[in-house]
Amino acid sequence: MSAYYILAIDQGTTSTRAILFDQDHHIIALDQQEFTQYFPQPGWVEHDAEEIWQTVLTTCQNAIAKSHVDPKLIVGLGISNQRETSILWEKSTGKVLGRAIVWQDRRTAEQCEKLKAENLTHWIQQKTGLLLDPYFSATKIRWMLDHLPGAQQKADNGELAFGTIESFLVWKLTAGKVHVTDVTNASRTLLMNISTRQWDQELLDLFKVPRALLPEIVSNAEKVGETDTGLLGIAIPITGMAGDQQAALVGQACIESGMLKTTLGTGAFLTLNTGKQLIYSSHQLLTTMGYDVKGDIAYVLEGSIFSAGAVLKWLRDELQLVQNVKETEALAQSLSGNDGVYLVPAFTGLGAPYWNPDVRGNLSGITRGTTKAHIVRAALESIAYQLRDVLDAMNKDVVDGIKEIRVDGGLTASAWLLQFIANLLNTPVLLTATQEASCYGASILAAIGAGCFPNLKSATQHWRAVRKFLPSFSAEERNSVYAGWLKAVHQLL
């Protein structure tokens, strides 16, 4: 094939990136924009879907302009997105109803508790692989139908569309011609049957979600439509989509059973490829779709951590203790230990393996001698402790020991954090060559969907690590600091 390019969108929780890749997976141009976060009540998190759409359109236009590439050479567009975030819009006008309810939002905790009281947890897990939690989309949809003016009646009349971010973006990019979702995002709604990979009528009935709201479920690498010519100057085929963690799984070339990656973004996610084996967790982890690429299907076990980069953003924006990740690294290194100071960043509850939406953050062990450096170090350490919680649960669910963790995301700018993770988890940590793993994965899926590669193996053969962090803690050191974390967490539960 002659020279070609792939445009990839990474629509994240706090910002949107658009990256143009060449056929050798090199980044040719990148553009990024942050957007507004809304916190109308404690535990509530919202986005303006139209603002997100404008950041997507602008970053795509800017990336193409910066590249000086002929748009006719762009053979595919891929989308990676924040998952579970839920949007309703009118099919006739495209007008969004209310703000998007973000994955971090906990407003439907009471609804989840009522369903748990009906002993539905196991039944739902067997159908979906997921747990009953406000994190997922189904209860968010129900809340919007109940609380947005006219929403239920419009839904009953077939006038509304639901979508997670990728679905909304495809609708906008195709000028309302295409209403689809990919199988990885669908698997995070509590409405898709994990075995059949289709919407489940019993689940729709349970959550009272009209079938007419829902998009068609498609695979992760196929042409679903084309961008409207008025947006990017040419009709670009939309050929790949996946939720951000599954896209990063592909971007990290974790395409064989037993391979594990973590993405350190706003949240942190440990994702283990279990191949075609559907493993239901007995330790509060999620079973979800890894990918469906040209019939190559993989499931994953995942542990979701709600606050990782969000902790450092809190240090920067609300407390104004630091300006960037590198500054946190220097402060952490200035101390020989944590001196018993622990931060549990349960800003919107705790994710895996606790799944407690009601607890809130706590800083413990402070004394008159506690400094800014202690608080910053506690924030960094909290990310590793949460990963340890998840990895311990994961090791109980799978037979084979996990040999390494491939890592990506914005927090990898801190070598101190990566070394602490290796020490605490007693597992080698491999830093990938690209820190845009989600966007990179989306570009790989789009390239396969556009026919540039026949399969995942050929498309991911360029993956490499640029640095390896080996564990250096003794068992005593490792267990001692982790015991302090467990004590701090269980004070809240």
Keywords:
493 residues; alpha+beta; Nucleotidyltransferase, domain 5; 7-stranded mixed β-sheet; 6-stranded mixed β-sheet; 17 helices; globular
Q: Which term fits the overall shape?
A: globular
Helix content: 25-40%
Q: Calculate the terminal CA-CA distance, rounded to whole Å.
A: 57 Å
Strand order of the largest sheet: 17-18-16-15-21-22-23
Give an overview of the whole structure.
The protein is α+β, with helices and mostly antiparallel strands and 493 residues long. The chain has a domain at 5-243: Nucleotidyltransferase, domain 5 (2-Layer Sandwich), CATH 3.30.420. It is 35% helix and 23% strand. The chain contains 17 helices and 23 strands. It has helices spanning 49-67, 109-117, 121-128, 137-147, 151-156, 165-173, 183-186, 201-207, 229-232, 244-251, 309-317, 325-333, 372-397, 415-425, 437-449, 456-459, 475-490, and strands spanning 5-11, 15-22, 27-34, 46-47, 74-81, 87-90, 100-101, 160-163, 180-182, 192-193, 198-199, 216-218, 225-226, 237-243, 260-264, 268-275, 286-293, 296-305, 342-344, 362-364, 405-408, 429-432, 465-469. The strands form seven sheets. Strands 17-18-16-15-21-22-23 form a seven-stranded mixed sheet, with helices on both faces. α1 (49-67) packs across α6, α10 crosses α15 and α13 (372-397) crosses α14. It is globular, with a radius of gyration of 22 Å. The protein starts with a strand and ends with a helix.
